Amino acid sequence: MTTVPPEAAAQPLNPPATHAPPRNFTYWLSTTNHKDIGILYLGLGALFFLIGGVEALVMRLQLAVPGNTLLRGETYNEFFTLHGTTMIFLAVMPMLLGFSNYLVPLQIGAKDMAFPRLNAFGFWLSALGGLTLYLSLLEGPPSMGWFAYAPLNERPFSMSLGTDFWAAALLLTGTGTTLTAINIIVTASRYRAVGMGLWKMPLFSWMAYVNSFIIVFAFPALNAALIMLEVDRVLSGHFFSHGGSPVLWQHYFWLFGHPEVYIMILPAWGIISEVIPVFSRKPIFGYEFVAGSTLAIAVLSFAVYAHHMFAVGFARPVNLAFAASTMLIAVPTGIKVTNWVATLWKGSIRFTVPMLYALAFILQFTFGGITGVSFAVLPIDWQVTDTYYVVAHLHYVLMGGTLFALLSGLHFYYPKMTGRMLSDALGKLAFWMIVLGFNGVFLVQHVLGLMGMPRRVYTYPDLPGWGALNMISTVGAFVLGLGLLLTLINLVVSRRLGRVAGDNPWQAWTLEWLTSSPPPKSNFSRLPPVHSSRPLWDLQHPHDPDHKRPRRHDKGGHIREEEKEHHQ
Amino acid sequence: MTASPVPASETQPPEHIDRNRQSNGFWGMAAFLATDVVMFTLLLVANIYLRRYSHGPGQASLDPGTTFWYSLGLWASSGVLILAERLRRQTELSGLLYLLTAGLGLVFVYGQVKEYLRLTHLGARVDVNLFYTGFYTVTGLHGLHVLVGALALIVAAVLRFGGRLGERRSGFTGGLGLYWHFVDGVWAVLFAVLYLWSGP
Ligand code: HEM
Ligand SMILES: [Cu+2]
Q: Which chain regions cross the lipid bilayer (chain A) (predicted)?
């Protein structure tokens, strides 16, 4: 540290808020502050994650032994439809938007979002959508699966109003999501602190920003498909049956659906890109590549959508084109993984709970990505599509990937959001149960899929090995559930009993760690000058700031010794 | 954070610096309209793709002549709106021009409803075939856009009359203007593709 004028040193740049209004029910209903909306989103996501999780456990109970009769076939269909829809639209999406809402203004040094009231409106639309989906229980819930293939989604095959509730729910949450994305685009474009160019934005904000563009272009495809579906169902239109084209539904759905999987992974990558450098005590390796490959992903995510439709029977050149684009998208994804690993390389790694989740993320996500690429090989896809192999793949990327990143982010940002540290012991215990449980559930499903077990069956015959593998999967699910329960307990208990965190408990380098924990209503009163993507590093090392050091590596390509920070 | 080593003179308040002259409302609306572009395009593509397999009443039942005159009104309203914004100093006149814009939009919607009734009478209903399923979906959605826009224009007129549509609301006027021109533009495409072009 340098010599500092005493009066400046004595005063923190951003003193904590002094008096705050009481946080009662009406406060939460009417708040427009981005941090409150972020927390509301996280809460909404957690609530639906609980519901979707219980649905999953019931399905796993039904599948525990061959020929089980706990659920009827139709009920099982309703369970997996509600489970898939809930997890994707009401659990993962709200949690990701919660982080975006909470973090983007803080990371770029803004007071709030560009449209605070629109922000609240978007959240409540999403909440209403969640309610609408579960109101379908009164009418007979939807049972055609989360991607609702035509003509199963049409009146003659899904006669209950539940399918219409489903469509309404997706339109509502989708609109809420789109409004939030528009908000993030305008906020990150116009409200960045002086000196923070686009290519100096913290990586989480970068990815949330690019993600918002994907949302803006992908969700209208879903909306168009849903409107057409309702014209068919309510007004007896002909889009997807009665002379129309069921494959058209698949085109429009996956034109949304594949970008959607990247919508769910980009913010997760953002969280990982924040956590890994902090706990390796090194700047991220290849910032420009991590950020830039995101742009490639954004474009390619639309260009690969028909890889979900290899079984439709397209002409050969069409299949080959989509197989090729699918393999291509693995390149920018691989670049990111490489950069995270390179960041770990020779770092002084601190195995905190958020870091453990981040490391598990890298392994599990990479594994899921590799099975993903295996689908791009057409004969493999034809063999394993609609088997448990696909179920295993999508859960490795969605749960082993996105959810682990969310848990990492939750443990990383909890001190900022609440001012308290989570219990380390409880966190580590829960982590190991979750890792064990998760891999227990899904690793064996690769094998089941390769043995030919189809997905979306409510029971199965007692073929050799099937019963044992399914039993492992079910036991794993309960270990996983228990681990998640422990995490929930940790979150609740530490709110009162946790150690006081201070502004920057992890010694991180981005602006959100400059302000108090939890931050005051308008985040910052003064901002330091921003010259690099690590403004707090520059602040703490006035003689060795990032922007005065153009090269991070010596001639041999190794990280220079001074680049590593040793005091911890 | 430990105490800041930066002298207070070097820090800055988190002010919002405007890099562009357009308002937040304008850019927010632009992003929203991007979603609309995608949605209208996909609905129109569905119609173009499916109408080849359509049987029964088709494009020939439409009435491009009458519709054209109503369309002209809608397109003219875009010009009126530009005038309304240019003349914002003259409260009364500008307010009236906003109302006129809304009125032209509503007349267009009236024309569309008349066309719907005429077609229904002829038996060209939404459930009759592929062409009309698509036709009603995409024109209906567009009509809804016009209706919403007209309501917003009436709000703008009322605000203007009350002298409450100043700089502080430039986001509202900027966004609304962009929206209205966009809706008019979409109609030009829909009119050409549905009424004039005989399809692939
Ligand atoms: C990045 C996160 C990813 C997510 C969230 C994700 C999600 C999914 C989901 C949900 C499905 C299931 C479709 C269904 O319901 O049948 C799926 C299937 C598929 N995924 Fe991924 N995926 C990801 C990454 C990848 C990658 C990196 C690739 C290839 C490079 C890939 C290739 C595929 C293919 C080809 C299928 C189609 C399988 C089939 O049904 O035949 N995915 N993915
Ligand atoms: Cu995909």
A: 39-59, 79-97, 118-137, 165-186, 206-229, 249-272, 284-306, 318-335, 356-378, 390-414, 426-448, 468-493
